[in-house]
Amino acid sequence: MDNAITLVELNRLIGRLVVVPDTQNVWVTAELSDVSSRGGHCYMELLQKDPDNGTILAKARAVIWANVYARIAFRFREVTGQQFETGIKVMLRVSASFHPVFGFSLVVSDVNPEFTMGDLLRRRQEILRRLQQEGVLEMNRSLQWPCVVQRIAVISAAGAAGYGDFINQLYGNHAQLKFKVKLFQAVVQGERAVPTILDALQQIAADEDNWDCVVIIRGGGATSDLAAFENYDLAANIAQFPLPVVIGIGHERDVTVLDYVANKRVKTPTAAAEWIISKGVEALEKLRNIGAEILQSVTDRLAGSKEQLSYIEALLPTIPHSLCEKALLRLQNNVTILAQVGARSISSQQVKLEHVAQLISTTNNVTLRQQRDRLDAMERMLDALSPEATLRRGYSITRVNGKVVTSVEEIKPGMTIETTLSDGVITSKHD
C-alpha cells in the first residue's frame, strides 16, 4: 500500500497523542510492584486492584529518573519510615510518555509521602493479625524438622523453570545425598493459584506419613504476579499444616503473607534446594562425628584393655599363691570366729532352754491345779442336777409303759402307772 507508514512514524504519532496536557503532571494513586533500582534510576509497575477480590484492574510501567529519585526516596523514608518498595500504596505525580523504542511509561516527578500503606500491605497485616488472634500464626513455624530431610512433597507448576532449578540443584548435590521427590502440580499465579495449591496441600496431608516436608516454589517474574499468595485461606492452611512448609517464590526482594506463616522462607527455588541439602549435609556431618567419637572411644578402650591385660599377665605367676594365702588366713579367722560365736550361742541357748523348762514346769502345775478344781466343781454340779438328787428333795417321776409322763392328758383310764420315789417305786392303776 502506498499510504503505509513505518513503525517509528506510528510510535511518534502515538507519542504526540499521549503527551497532551491532560496526561502531564497528574496525581494518581497506585500500588507499587516490582520496584528495582538500576543506574540510579527507579523502575516499577503501578497497579490498581479491585478492593473486593484483589484482581488487578490496571497496570502501567513507571520510572523515576536518577535526578529526582534520591530526593523522593529520602523524603518518603523520612516521613513514613519505610523504603520506597513493592507493596506500598502511594500517590505519585506522573506524566505520560511514549518512547518509540521502549514504549509507554509514566515518568514520576514527585510523591505524596502521607499517602502510604497500600492495599497489599494492609491486607497482609489484616491476615496476619487474624491468624494471630486465632492462635495459629506460629503453628507451622514451631514444627520440629526431622534429623534427615529426604522425602519432599513439592507444589509447583509442571514444567516450570523454578521446579527444574530445584530438582537440578537437589539431585546434583556435591554430597551425593539421595532424595525422594514428588511434584503436586498447581497453578502458581492468577485466579486459579489458590484453589489448586489448596488441593495439592490436601493431597499431601492425606498421605503425610510419607513426607518430611512440603516445598512451595515458583520461579522469578513480576512481583505483581505474586498477588495470589496474599490470601487468608492459603495462609491459614499453611500455618496449620502438619508438616514443615518451605516457601521459595519470587526473588529475594519479594515477600508475601506466606513467608510469615511458613516454617522456612528462602528467596528462590534453588535456595530451597540448597537449604534442604544443607540439612542433609549437617546430619551427615553429625553422623561422621559420632562415628569418629565411637572409633576414638573404642580405640581408647582397646588401649586401656591391652594395658590392663599386660598388668594382669605380669601378676599371673604370683596371684595363685597370694590368693591361697589370703584364703587360708580368711579360713582360719572364720574358724576362730565360728568357735567363739558357737560357744556364745550355745551358752545363751542353754540359759534360754533352762528358763523355758522351768517356765513349762510352773505352767503345767498351775494348769493341772486349775483343771482339777474345774472338774471338782463340775462333779458337784452334776451331782446336784442328777435325778437322784431331785428325788431326794421330795420330787417323783411318773412313767406309763416306761415313758415319762409330762401331762395328765397322757394318762387314760385303765393304764398302769409307775411312780418313782427316792426310796422305791409305787405301781398303781388309773380308774
Q: Tell me which oligomeric state these chains represent.
A: single chain
Give the H and E element order.
HEEEHEEHEHEHEHEHEHHHEEEE
Mean of residue pLDDT values = 85
Main sheet attributes: strand count, strand direction, barrel closure: 5 strands, mixed, barrel
Q: Roughly what fraction of the amino acids lie in strands? A: 15-25%
Largest sheet, spatial ordering of strands: 1-2-3-5-4
- What is the share of helical residues? 40-55%
Structural classification: alpha/beta
The name of the CATH superfamily of the largest domain reads Cobalamin-binding domain
What's the total helix number?
Answer: 10
First-last Cα distance: 177 Å
CATH C-level class of the largest domain is Alpha Beta
Structural domain count: 3
Radius of gyration: 56 Å
The CATH topology of the largest domain turns out to be Rossmann fold
DSSP strand tally: 14
CATH architecture of the largest domain: 3-Layer(aba) Sandwich
Structural description of this entry:
The structure is a single chain. This protein has a 5-stranded mixed beta barrel with strand order 1-2-3-5-4. A 5-stranded parallel sheet has the order 7-6-8-9-10. The chain is 46% helix and 22% strand. The model has no long low-confidence stretch (mean pLDDT 85). The chain is elongated, with a radius of gyration of 56 Å. It folds into 3 domains: 111 residues, OB fold (Dihydrolipoamide Acetyltransferase, E2P) (Beta Barrel), CATH 2.40.50.140; 154 residues, Rossmann fold; 42 residues, no CATH class.
